[in-house]
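Archive entry: two folds, one per protein. Generate the first.
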Amino acid sequence: MNTDVEILLVEDNPADIRLTQEAFAVNKVYNKLHVVTDGEQALDFLHRRGFFVGAPRPDVVLLDLNIPKIHGIEVLREMKADESLRKIPVIMLTTSGNEADVEKTYSIGANAYVQKPVDFKQFIKALEAIENFWISVVKLAP
């Protein structure tokens, strides 16, 4: 397994952040997980500005849809419009099962849409599937 993958988690719910960290630990995902809690921080991290000057370029972004300051749709839209960011795989990891949200994120360029399971065991399985495919299997763009 490649342990040099930089993962950016964009999530405002502390419980979901903790669950993601625990699920990665249970699944023995030892890649670097960076966490930001709103859309403004996400864009600052991605553009390496402000507090995030010198931040690594993430190889994969796990993006919640309903985040403060700048909505997840707008973060995704900006990423896919920027030549330097558009190749980064974006996995929408959200509680929304709304078909319009699914359609909109795919039309903008999301690489996957995963609805967060409420049950911890199911959440672990979902993150394990993400890890297995996006971190262990897929050849990421340099």
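Generate the second and append.
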Amino acid sequence: MNLLIIRHAIATDKVTFALTGRPDSRRPLTAEGRRKFKRSLKGLRRASPKINMIATSPYRRAVETCRLAETAFPKAQVMTLPALRHGGDLRLVTAWLAGLPASTKAAVVGHEPDLGRLTALLLGSGAPPAIYKKGGAALVSFDGRAAAGAGKLVWLLTPALLRRLK
């Protein structure tokens, strides 16, 4: 199994958005965030295997990032996975991953620090290997089905590096 892990693109400033009185879960991407992530998609498509499933956090900024990622992987089945929300239960995410067939090439779209923790859990590390930049991604592979501690980090790329891949 291969798992592409994507942090949502640049979103509206958290403090400024809080002043609107709306919940953080409704915070959208900025125009710059959408533009930069669109430019990263060619590199993401080049660096990752064909994706046949994308799961996203229900938060607006992740859903919007997922919709952009769909353009790079148009045949992927898309679903919302509530456990990917900011502060979600990583045990539920790993259980979901473990239930997928070994042939799956999945992607998840979520938030930090959760994605760093998820990566550490999948790699069997006590601490996150890195902090994902907004719009950054990593590829973790498994021999067979996904399981905590069984993953191998293939690559971890910043958005700037993804934009340089052609």
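Annotation attached to the second fold: Residues 2-164 form a domain with the Rossmann fold fold (CATH 3.40.50.1240). The first helix runs from residue 14 to 18.
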